[in-house]
Design a protein that fits this description.
- By secondary structure, the chain is an alpha/beta fold.
- The protein folds into two domains: 44-312, Glycoside hydrolase, family 3, N-terminal domain (TIM Barrel); 323-365.
- Helix content is 45%, strand content 8%.
- The chain contains 13 helices and ten strands.
- The protein has helices at residues 33-39, 43-51, 93-99, 102-118, 148-163, 192-199, 201-210, 231-241, 263-269, 286-289, 292-310, 314-353, 357-365; strands spanning 56-57, 68-72, 123-125, 168-169, 171-174, 187-188, 214-217, 221-222, 225-226, 247-249.
- The strands form three sheets. Strands 1-2-3-4 form a four-stranded mixed sheet. Strands 5-7-10 form a three-stranded parallel sheet.
- A hairpin with a 2-residue loop joins β8 and β9 (225-226).
Amino acid sequence: MENTQEDIEMPTTGAKNGLKVDDLSGADYNDERWTKLVEQMSVDELVELTGNAGWQTSAIESVGKKATVDIDGPQGLNGFNFTDTLMNTYTSEVLMGMTWNPELVQEMGDTYAKEALSWGIVGIYAPALNTHRSPFGGRNFEYFSEDPTLSGLLAVSEITGMQNQGVYVYAKHYLLNTQDTNRDGAANWCNEQALREIYARPFELAIKKAKCTGLMTELSRIGTSWSSATRALCDELPREEWGFTGKIITDGVGPGGDYYMLPDYAIAAGNDMMLTRASGDCGYTSATLDSAFGIAQMQRAAKNILYVYANSKATEVSDRYNVYWQWMWILGNLLLAGMEIAIFIALPVRAWCFATPSAKKESQNV
């Protein structure tokens, strides 16, 4: 594994500290109660929260956390058949970049977040802020520009608009995503200066200026290392240098990972969540499940996930918005149906009232 497992004591799990995640809403990231909170979780709950995190976060009874829905993507809600969302489509990031208009982009982010909340969705796999490295990039339509500062400042505006409404975001595809065709395992090569000045710059601005709540790593490699299992990318750069306090999720992986996308490696490197629907078995092995280091890493990840949850509208959304929207949708359809029936009845009556006496007599004879 890329990380050397530290010589630490086995962490406490299943403690009875009497805390609920809602108790820590607004609490500082370094508040010691976060440690006590995650110590209440069992190992199975830690696996569920960090490992079964594709398009959702799981309910965790021991800390009073409710389930949430996370949805793709940068141009609007995309349920991938996991939900019944009817999405509005927004303009691509390329066109947004052409506007050079941060106020307009923030307004779009605000509108997008309100739409998501109306569906009971609190997490969005967006925005996408990679730098255009080639005109042939398969996801260029999701990325703002070839200019890192323009991309970063517009991302700050969109993220600010979204997070002001209480949703949390996953800025992606952190960090060097270049292609979509055959991207699994592709190796991207870049020196450190170019990486910091160009490709990392939009993400740095998003974290420092917008307090970005989440990042999504990529399926490809940086050099020979899977991006989601690179400690310099998942821990040192965002957390130690930029002050990031959010959560980091992999890009989509199957249960158990692939031949190189191994959950053990990702959780050890500082990645918090596995984007896979794998309740009960995301692919962790004894290297994580039976080691003090592995359990400590899952607790570290759980803290990040719960911190973002507690400072969002997650609790409100799961109870209120979706039901409210569904009933308003039904009521609106009933009203429209009533109007159609009334018009259907009223038109013949109106025709009769305005008909000439001879026409009325003729209709009666018929």
